[in-house]
Specification:
The protein is mainly α and about 180 residues long. The chain has 9 helices and no strands.
Length: about 180
């Protein structure tokens, strides 16, 4: 996703109320925003709901989006805040199990550690987004979804050697981008 592409979609959404431009923007950014929400919530359903809510807000405020200097960071912050708010809301619900509440209470993490962790995660998401599409697909399927090389090869209709090569390429590029 390039800044130019994003600006073009935002302009169409803002000036023409273009739902097709919004759909393109949605398709281009959904996975990334979902990963951010999932990082915070660790719940797939919550993450989906959060991201859909964020997209609703983006559509409702589409006229102001052109004024946003860095839409990538803006979306990241929207999803982060929405995730934290959602978690807080869910933790207040009486239906949560004692184990879930105990788990969140046991996490003694300093604000500095949290900030560093969030910054690293944001850099990781940006680096992952800049990978070639096939590399990114293979990396996500193996490292995040914990699928085997054989499963990925079958799903993408490629050989296991190609899966290995794509994973190595993705890993080395991610390291390179993250160490900059």
């Amino acid at each position: 996703m390039t800044e130019q592409e994003v600006r073009r979609y935002l302009r169409k959404m803002s000036e023409q109320d273009s739902q097709s431009a919004f759909r393109e923007f949605y398709d281009m950014t959904y996975d990334r925003l979902f990963r951010i929400a999932y990082y915070y919530t660790h719940h797939e359903e919550w993450s989906q709901e959060i991201v859909l809510d964020v997209f609703m807000k983006l559509w409702e405020h589409r006229k102001q989006l052109l004024d946003v200097t860095n839409i990538e960071d803006y979306c990241f912050i929207l999803v982060k805040n929405a995730s934290l708010n959602y978690i807080e809301k869910e933790e207040r619900r009486p239906t949560l199990s004692v184990e879930v509440l105990q788990e969140s209470a046991d996490q003694n993490v300093s604000p500095e550690d949290t900030l560093i962790s969030e910054e690293l995660f944001a850099r990781y998401v940006k680096a992952l987004d800049r990978l070639p599409e096939r590399c990114r697909e293979v990396f996500i399927l193996i490292r995040e979804e914990k699928q085997t090389y054989a499963q990925v090869a079958e799903k993408l209709d490629i050989s296991t050697k190609t899966v290995d090569a794509q994973l190595q390429k993705a890993t080395s590029r991610l390291k390179e981008m993250l160490l900059k």
